[in-house]
Amino acid sequence: MIIVTKHGVTQAELDHIRERVESLGLRTHVSQGEHRTVIGCVGDESRLEGVSLLSIPGVDTVHPVMRPYKLASKDFAADPTRIPLGGVQIGGPEIMVIAGPCSVEGHEMLLQTAEATKAHGARALRGGAFKPRTSPYSFRGLGEEGLELLSRVRSETGLPIVTEVMDTRQVDLVASYADMLQIGARNMQNYNLLMEVGRLRRPVLLKRGMSATVEDLLLAAEYIMSQGNPNVVLCERGIRTFGTATRNTFDLAAIPLLKSETHLPVIADPSHAGGRRDLVAPLSFAAIAAGADGLIIEVHPQPETATSDGDQSLDFDEFAGLMQALAPFVEAAGRSLPV
Ligand code: PEP
Ligand code: MN
Question: What is the Cα–Cα distance from 292 to 122, expressed in whole angstroms?
Fold first, then answer.
């Protein structure tokens, strides 16, 4: 921690700041400038957590040196974390593509989507059974029946299933079906839910909240990991900005930034980021070029009839075209698609 003092700080104030920091078990190192004095605090920075340094007379600003996240930080792990799902190690050399409808609507559409996307390289099936909808009057998912359908299609196709859990009360139920638990953007800071999925060892797909900073996302991952579950995959799915041309603003820079901050795998969701099917391919290319470990893409047999997110869902031909066009980007990024 570095403490910068106010202009004109007195010696008594300086002594008091140092005493306060040293009383917490850290050492201080003072650097006297012409106008300001900077105090470097050396030692276990976590001891200063919760201490209101800014309220000590003479303190102007305080700058943490260590990252607030620990388990999620790159300092914590020697190698990138790999999370196995559907025969792919997410975070390894292969690019994981998760595809499927926004919502599970029925058996036939789910099976067709799973088969079509699998044939073109998807290695996991997504589909919401419990849907977080902005309006309470929108279709909110089939609930447990949707989970049953996912599990049936998993046995029919062999694809692992990725589905959202929205509530602490549903964690055990959803985990009894899902191979990967999705925490949606609207729940990224639902700390009780994060801690509940942290009790399990099931992989978690943690989507970035609409107004979350990169640090907020990493701290949300830290909540899960601090409970003992190390299997967290981060997902950039666009954030809210003042731009209205796209559903969200895809924060491309967050991908390489996250990759430099954390050992956890990072995937991108170009469907929710752009909100339009014609943007899915270019955003996918960009994400892979920027270092993403995978993609999650909404696909529907007939997007115009979809109960949710039809505008951004690809049909089967479009998905096949995307996978074909993606290949050179995957290769250029030094990665491969699972065969
Ligand atoms: C979804 O994946 O369908 C979804 C609701 O995503 P998000 O939480 O990112 O909005
Ligand atoms: Mn959706």
Answer: 16
In the predicted structure, residue 284 carries a pLDDT above the cut 80: yes
Nearest residue to 26 via CA among 7, 10, 3: 3
Residues 6 or more apart from 134 whose CB is under 8 A from it? none
- The helix/strand count (H/E) of the chain reads as 10, 14
Residue 180, phi then psi, degrees to nearest 5: -140, 130
Q: What is the 164 CA–ligand 2 centroid distance (Å)? A: 10
Instruction: Return the structure tokens found at 57.
Output: 């007379």
**183: nearest Cα among 203, 205, 199:** 205
Q: Is 47 buried (19+), middle (13-18) or exposed (0-12) by CB count in 10 A?
A: middle
Q: Which of the 8 DSSP states describes residue 245?
A: S
The residue type at 107: H
The closest of 159, 185, 158 to 275, measured between CA atoms, is: 185
Global pTM?
A: 0.90
Q: Which residues line ligand 1 (CB under 6 A)?
A: 102, 128, 132, 184-186, 207, 237, 269, 272
Beta bridge partners of 4: 38, 61
Tokens standing for residue 284: 């996918």
* 107-119 helix and 316-332 helix, angle to the nearest 10 degrees: 30
Nearest CA to ligand 1 atom 4: 184
pLDDT tens column, 76-107: 887 899 999 999 999 999 999 999 999 999 99
Q: What are 17-46's pLDDT values in tens digits?
A: 999 999 999 999 888 887 788 998 888 888
Note whether 21 and 41 are within 8 A (CB).
yes
Tokens of 166: 């929205």
Q: Three-state DSSP class for 38?
A: strand
**How many Cβ atoms sit within 10 Å of the Cβ of residue 10?**
12
